[in-house]
Structure formats: C-alpha cells, structure tokens
Amino acid sequence: MAEVKLSGTTLATSSVEERIVRALNIIGATLLAAAFPIVTATAGQTTTDKTKVEIKDGKDVTVAGCLDRTTEGRFVLTTAESGSLKYVLVTDDDLGKYVGHEVEIKGKAADRGNAKVKIEEKVKTDHEDRPDTEAHSETELKGHLPDMHYLGVKSVKRLSDRCD
Predict the structure, then answer these.
(1) 113-161 pLDDT per residue, tens
(2) DSSP labels for the chain?
C-alpha cells in the first residue's frame, strides 16, 4: 500500500492506478517538473513557478542509456535503440556536457523499492497594481511507486561520445 501526503494530509490508496490518478490530480503538471523555474507574464503581472523534486529512499541502481534534454530543459535518460524514456533525472548539477552521449548513471530509483518522492512547488506573482502574492505546496508520495520514473543522480560516467 502506498500513501499520498499533501500538506500534512495522508491519503492511503490500495492500487497503483488509484495512487497515480490521485497523485496526478493533486499535483497536476508539476509532476514532471524538476528544479526549473517557469516565468510567465500577462498585462500587469509576472508569475514565477519553481518546482523541486526530491528522491528519498528508493533503490540504488546503475543504469545506462542516452542522456537527453527536453524542450523544458529537464535532463532525461532514454534508450539508445528507440529513444523511449527510462528516467527523468533529478539533480542540481548541469549535465549539459553529457547530452547526446551514452552514459552510466548511479542513483536512487523512485520506481524500485520503497521510495519517497517529495515535490515542492512555489509560485510567486508580481502584480503591478496590488501587493504580490505567493503560494507554496508540498506533495509526498511513499511506497512502491512503479510508475514514477525519477532517478536521483549520484554520479554520471560517459560510456561513449554518441548514442547508437
């Protein structure tokens, strides 16, 4: 059984599908964000949205694949053959020098073992004609999370200069 914790409230769920649907409903689009600020502007206001994902526990793994960057700037590990996603990489390091290379990554996998994934989102809106506003939310997922393809990066080793 897994738990979903939202700002101090824990919701027990009994199935993987139920847990994932509930988590997606709770955190929406922030689920795929790593630690990148998103800034939007409309007439008279600017909004900054920063999401941080943290992996706790999980299973220590060593995986190989191609390192790529999404259009949003997130680093991902894909398969060399098809380019399909293996993991969204969770790190504060700039892995840009490895993009397009085959790499070996050691880290904590959220989709294996008894993992905890903590997602923290901060949204700040600067208003031109009134006081600024801020919102903060935290979501924590615990348990066996087979559909949470996050990998907390501990180390990266280049295996090849290209992905074949």
Answers:
(1) 788 888 888 988 888 888 889 999 998 888 877 778 889 999 999 999 9
(2) -EEEEETTEEEEESSHHHHHHHHHHHHGGGGG--S-EEEEEETTEEEEEEEEEEEEE-EEEEEEEEEEE-TTS-EEEE-TTT--EEEEEE-SS--GGGTTSEEEEEEEETTSSSEEEEEEEEEEEEESSS--EEEEEEEEEEE--TT--EEEEEEEEEEESS--
